[in-house]
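Researcher: I'm preparing a figure for a lab meeting and need a structural model of a single chain. I don't have an experimental structure, so a prediction will have to do for now. The sequence is pasted below. Please return the structure as tokens so I can convert it later.
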Amino acid sequence: MEYKTNDIKAFSFGQLTRRTYGDKVIWAIVVLLTMMSLLAVYSSTGTLAYKLSRSTESYLLKQILFIFSGAGIIYALHLVNYKFYSKFSQLLYIISIPLLIYTLFFGTSLNDANRWIKLPIINLTIQTSDLAKLALFMYISRQLSKRQDDIKDFKKGFLPVIIPVAIICVLIAPANLSTALLTGATSLILMFIGRISLKHIGLVVLIAAIPVALLVSLAKIYYDPAAHKKEQLPEVMRIARLETWVSRTQDFMYADKQDVSYQVQQAKIAIAKGSWVGLGPGNSQARNFLPHPYSDFIYAIIIEEYGLFGGVVIMAVYLLFLFRCIRIMKKCPYAFGAFLSLGLSFTLVIQAMANMAVNVNILPVTGVTLPLVSMGGSSFIFTCVSIGIILSVAKHVEKEEANAVVDIKHQEVPS
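Model: Understood. Here is the structure written out token by token.
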């Protein structure tokens, strides 16, 4: 029997879809966000291509390669039994600590911060905090699931969970304070859902508030509101990252329409031009002036081109993603899978909301990207890893439901 080419293609596609498990809505969300990513990245990389004497199409091709690589990672990881990640989490967490230390002292420096290391063979630069976040949420999901019987106890339940969180956040903070704060906040949410005592969580919040309060105090002390002028920190405090944090806090607290930071000015201009329906795909003007329009400020470009409607749709897609992950958590029969899917989904959605908040000037400027939409890099790859693991849990839930239906049908058949 002979098969036509179209029959073979249809057969292959059919096999692929039949071997694709998990939440179909999450699969659809991944496709939707990556398609939006192609449009936004292609539109926003014109100035970067001009500066580096490259074509815009080269960045589009690079993004397509990242998307296909990410899709392959998601597909491969969702086929793995999620219980494997419980054992693997310990090793990954242990590896992430020396990597963060190495990055802190010997990593590639950008804007006075060592956040990246370069892999020697494939020449890919990765942000080790992305790996550390993934390892941390896998590890504390394991700890929360194992210690439910003693979860209210300070020594047996609280300390084994909070110590790993504190280690990772302290190692990330010197180079990337915003990521450390978001990681810590997500961990506290997961601990609250994991039934950690509220008084223990409150103690952590109070301790974490001390350095934040000191930062705000320094921003107030060394700023003259009347002259709209920043004052220099004492020489003993003139550490590169501390000066950057204080300066950004001052920009956020005191800047008016005239002296707001350049990035925020351009982002506001982009949003204002977008109005309700936007200028249309590829018609952004702010991309020529806005720093990093393809990563940190890609949401402003989306609003400029697709209007407030496009911005709301993107936000709704992330919230739908969170809703579907909560649904997976509720249906998962095992604690580890429930905590794992919830922890990874929270970190992605909180990161997305933080990026949007920075773009509309609700939060100070940070280097947080928009998951699955910003131009590909290590953050894009680790986002795909997280989604693959979430879909692995969803696949297990799907099979459990199918088995339950079969059992009910067998019980209904008379003997």
